Amino acid sequence: MIKEERIKYLIIGNSAGGIGAAESIREVDKVGTITILSDEPYPAYSRPLISDYLAERRPLQRMLFRPPDFYEENNIQSIPGRKVTGLDIDEHNIQLVDGRAIIWEKLLLATGGSPIMPEITGIDLEGVFTFTTLDDAKEIDQFLNNYHRRKIRAVVIGGGLIGVSVTEALVKRGVDVTIIEMKDRILNTILDEEASALVETSLQQFGVEIITGQTVDKVTSYLSGAATGVTLDDSRPIPCEIVIVAIGVQPRTELVSNTGIKKKRGIIVDRHMTTSNSDVYACGDVAEAYDFVYGENRLTPIWPNAFIGGRVAGFNMAGVQTEYQGGTAMNSLKYFGLAIVSAGMVTPLDDSYEVISQIHDHVYKKIVLKDGLIVGLVFSGDIDKSGIIYNLMKDKVNIEDFKQTLVADDFGLVSLPEEIWKPGLAIPPSALACGISSVEQTEEVLVGE
Amino acid sequence: MRRVYFNEEACIGCHLCEIYCQLQHSQSRELIKVFKRESPHPLPRVRVEEKGPVSLSIRCQQCDEAPCVYACLTGALTRDAINEVVVLDEERCVGCWTCILVCPFGTIRRDVDQRKTVKCDLCQGEDVPICVINCPNEALVYKESS
Ligand SMILES: Cc1cc2nc3c(=O)[nH]c(=O)nc-3n(C[C@H](O)[C@H](O)[C@H](O)COP(=O)(O)OP(=O)(O)OC[C@H]3O[C@@H](n4cnc5c(N)ncnc54)[C@H](O)[C@@H]3O)c2cc1C
Fold it and tell me: Are residues A42 and A59 both part of a single domain?
């Protein structure tokens, strides 16, 4: 017989978005039942750290996003290792792979993304891996451990964030890596040309070979069932023992197909992270949420945006009206110790944008502007004050009058007009009026400011 | 919660807040050793910026909706449930520097050698943060905010 449970808040996806939501729900509703589901068999862990797992076998214990007693402490039911196979919006119910059904009042889809697999010959051979989960990292680790013969060679297909992350880990394990990138430079979606070149140089110094402007036509094998190389689109063969597919991730929207919930590439959400169905919310890599740089909904598949989106969704699910200020693509990279941060539009779309930059020694600073507002930034080397710039961008502060100082060596809060730094540092009137603690309640809480 | 606030009119840019902060967060707590020999080299969590006659003493303001806590990839930055201070669990920090990119005050520092973030903890264990105690001109005040 099928057992049916009733849950107030059901969260699919036990990662950045799911935890962000569970925490904010508990901040405002101490008793409503929360269940968090995942097809991964672990407590929430920091996904970016799978590189550290592979590089230095960082134990799961030190990858956990929250302390081990998190679920118990917050009275959250966690069902790990169970896939959700069906979603019925009208009936407010979901089905699990084991036949169980759960009825929910509010649902959050924080299902993330899944790796895109190219349709090429040999993609199912042994030795071909993806790199988005801890289990992926474990499988690659196993493979390396079992390979005793000689130097292992890897081909990484795709030079994006995940491709470069796995490359660094493999290099640290002594593997020879070749990256094949279809576009003309690696990390082309998150960095500008200059910063891409910096990473490229740094990877090359560690022996990584980078082939750009080419794709892999097939994975080849002269051993039964095991990959022994790849062939590029110009027929050039590259021998290797291991292939990592990292050409991108796509939002895991499969649960909402046939439900009428609006989606494009990702599930469309409004500024409350609500989908086109008012009882269903979405956040993180699966969602197309508001991007404050582009002024429209976009996929911004990064950890902080998933977490904040989840946090906003959670408040709204619990009835506390909260608006998502919006996110944008932003990344902090430190491959082989080279610090680079980037956010927003890193390469101007056309001539209507202005670029201010500075480059010397090991420092690179660039800001992209439009009509006096910052729309993008790339900093390398000296990144410590980049947060000030990021927030000027986010808060849409007009910087026309002092734009040159933003990339100066001695830039700091003090370079900005007093109206900007003073409210944050000086004693607020509420603290001066000692004893009287009147807090003005704003209608909507803005999260992510 | 109590926070450290700054009165620009009273700040003379003496940098004592930085020095005492560095001392406070050292192993030896011996001035000469801290500045010349101690390894790992302790870093101040306060920064003094100057421009002409204006000088600012800047540290983590323990933001209500703290962007660093929400951006932290590993869960190393959290808000302490009891005293509300934004604290770093050094064990869990991997030095990814994502927090730095979102800090509106640019006040989180990199300890590159340790691969860890360094930030103001309001001198946990002390009644009043050491920078406030040692400010010669009362430019720093430690006060309850709403
Ligand atoms: C190697 C690597 C490095 C990265 N580095 C960075 C970085 O430096 N900075 C950064 O900001 N971001 C980084 N990211 C991206 C970041 O990890 C993601 O943006 C983030 O994990 C998204 O969180 P999420 O909650 O949306 O989804 P996910 O973390 O993808 O979690 C979704 C969860 O839902 C589960 N799920 C999906 N469908 C179902 C179903 N039907 N039933 C049950 N469970 C389901 C999935 O198995 C998964 O556990 C990196 C990612 C990778 C892979």
Answer: yes
